[in-house]
Amino acid sequence: MLPRVVTLHDAMPFHAWNDDAFSLPYFRQTQRRAVASADAIITDSDYSKQDICDVLDVTPAKITVVPLAPSPEVIPPDANVRRDLLNELGVERRFVLGLAATAKRKNTRGTLRAFATIMTDFDDVSLVLTGVGPELRSTLSSEMQSLQMPESRVKFLAFVGPEQLASLYAECSAFCFLSLYEGFGLPILDAMQCGAPVICSARTSCPEVAGDAAMMVDPEDADDVARALGKVLNRDDNEQVEWCQRGYAQAARFTWANTAALTARVYDSVMS
Predict the structure, then answer these.
(1) Of 4, 124, 156, 209, which one is least surrounded by beta carbons within 10 A?
(2) Nearest 5°: CA angle at 63, between 58 and 53?
(3) pLDDT digit string (tens) for 28-76?
(4) One-character DSSP codes across 58-112
(5) Is residue 206 within 8 Å of residue 188, measured between CB atoms?
(6) Does domain 5-69+255-271 have CATH number 3.40.50.2000?
(7) Using one digit for the tens of pLDDT, what is the confidence trace for 111-121?
């Protein structure tokens, strides 16, 4: 029988709280059998490695961590093009950026709650959320009403293309990534490579991806996130440049060439 290498990005489908995946036969049976019979397993982060060991009872020696890298297509265009793209999206003022999603673990409501806490102190700043489809728009609009947030303070965008996303990262005053569970957290690096000041969840794999280049927060503590937002929005130009440089350096530590080399090394090891 040929050696088998399985890539498992995270153990999220195997957690009982994940209603969307936990009960599906593919995860309850097929993937579990694949992991159990693998000669080697590749995953994206040290956190995912430990989680796979704990949830699926895998020996650590079988798992190799192969980090991912920033998206090569999410590169900001020049300033004039960025301004034109943001004008087309209707984004005109200082703004905090968040990536919205229907999945509870993405904690979109947490981003809304944190912004609601600081919006009266920063009346020149709006919140921009991407990835907002019709169903999510209805949910978030209801949440805004309960938080007494004026519609004028929040801009909902549908899914945006790589150039638009890169422009949003490059022009935002802060990027909030408040996920409750990530096997890696690519948006952290994408934002950093575009020069965004990042406020990042201190949960799961996020700290090892963000390093010392982000403000770390408890994603379920709106006051903690609000304090971090206030600090970032009040930074002077020198502080902002310093943190942007940290972000560029952190993102540059992760390359697809390294990902490919480490992946090939695992395949070589099972063939020897």
Answers:
(1) 124
(2) 30
(3) 788 899 999 999 999 999 999 999 999 999 999 999 999 999 999 999 9
(4) --GGGEEE------TT-----HHHHHHHHHHHT--SEEEEEE--SSGGG-HHHHH
(5) yes
(6) yes
(7) 999 999 999 99
Q: Which residue carries 């952190």 as its tokens? A: 250
Give yes or no for a contact between 199 and 215, defined as CB atoms under 8 angstroms apart.
Answer: yes
With a cut of 90, say whether residue 27 has pLDDT above it: no
Tokens coding 113? 């709650």
Tens of pLDDT, residue by residue over 180-221, are 999 999 999 999 999 999 999 999 999 999 999 999 999 999
Question: Cα separations (Å) of 165 from 60, 117, 159, 175, 214?
Answer: 37, 25, 9, 12, 19
Work out whether the CA dihedral 214, 218, 221, 227 comes out positive or negative.
negative
| Domain pair 5-69+255-271 / 79-252, same fold | yes
Q: Rounded to an integer, what distance in angstroms lies between the CA atom of residue 95 and that of residue 25?
A: 43
CATH of domain 79-252: 3.40.50.2000
Please list the helix, strand and coil fractions of the chain in percent, rounded to the nearest 5, in that order. 50, 15, 35
